[in-house]
């Protein structure tokens, strides 16, 4: 995978992390949750070591750390014994690839996992290995999902609050990303839900200023609307795309912007749209 957009759009069981220890998870897709049992709301913001357990091989972990911490990380493939949310061990063929920005700087890692049975008889299921509080939260969430409640009921309000908390956690992770990232709502007019610190630094807008705005805040007289429309059509088809357009920073400063857009999938459905911005220096 050459870009973060491609990593988020893949249908393989994929997890995307930050580029620095402790390698916080910023995204997981449906295939990853099906293998691991970890829901996105529980996994995002946690370290990638949530899949480790007592039989995870320390030699393999050391090789993995060395590869990730190398001055110029290269793709690595290795086999690990990992554990699901419920403590069930599985053999994980793990493929990790660095994701670089247009300057060649590693900004994230994508981790593709493939599960197969553990053949060693000594490696047995451990039962629930996650913190009790998280297990209770999962059980309460699954129970609530089977109960029909009124929109204004306390249960519905509590569910909405938990969703807001999960989004806040994601926002905190994105704030530490070195990429200029913007996430928008799925439905028109596609209002901005999150921006990274790098996006704010590039555009000149603060997070508070873009709250409730749309990405049109960066458009101006020389923005090619046809290219923007083409990218939106790709997103609605569930496809990633890219284009180079003129955008405008706060104050009206024009800049050439290489934009990569991608749908973000959750539970097999497109949940939101993501854009990654790279300022291009004109010669």
Automatic annotation (TrEMBL):
It comes from the Eukaryota. Residues 21-113, 181-280 form the PAS domain. Residues 141-160 are annotated as: Disordered. Keywords: Chromophore, Flavoprotein, FMN. Gene3D superfamilies: PAS domain. Transmembrane segments: none annotated. One of its GO terms (cellular component) is nucleus. This is PAS domain-containing protein. InterPro entries: PAS, PAS-like_dom_sf.
């Amino acid at each position: 995978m050459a870009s973060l957009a491609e990593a988020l759009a893949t249908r393989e069981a994929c997890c995307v992390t930050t580029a620095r220890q402790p390698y916080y998870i910023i995204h997981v897709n449906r295939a990853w949750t099906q293998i691991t049992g970890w829901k996105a709301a529980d996994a995002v913001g946690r370290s990638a070591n949530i899949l480790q357990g007592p039989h995870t091989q320390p030699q393999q972990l050391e090789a993995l750390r060395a590869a990730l911490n190398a001055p110029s990380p290269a793709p690595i493939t290795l086999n690990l014994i990992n554990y699901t949310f419920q403590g069930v061990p599985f053999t994980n063929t793990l493929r990790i690839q660095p994701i670089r920005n247009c300057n060649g700087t590693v900004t994230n890692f994508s981790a593709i996992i493939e599960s197969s049975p553990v053949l060693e008889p000594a490696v047995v299921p451990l039962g629930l290995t996650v913190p009790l509080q998280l297990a209770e939260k999962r059980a309460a969430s699954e129970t609530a999902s089977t109960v029909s409640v009124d929109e204004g009921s306390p249960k519905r309000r509590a569910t909405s609050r938990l969703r807001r908390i999960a989004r806040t956690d994601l926002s905190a992770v994105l704030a530490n990303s070195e990429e200029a990232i913007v996430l928008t709502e799925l439905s028109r007019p596609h209002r901005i839900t999150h921006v990274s610190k790098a996006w704010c630094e590039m555009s000149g807008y603060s997070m508070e200023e873009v709250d409730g705005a749309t990405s049109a805040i960066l458009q101006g007289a020389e923005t090619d609307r046809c290219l923007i429309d083409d990218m939106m059509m790709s997103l609605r088809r569930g496809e990633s795309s890219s284009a180079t357009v003129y955008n405008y920073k706060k104050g009206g400063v024009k800049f050439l912007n290489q934009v990569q857009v991608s749908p973000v999938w959750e539970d097999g459905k497109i949940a939101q749209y993501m854009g990654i911005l790279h300022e291009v220096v004109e010669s």
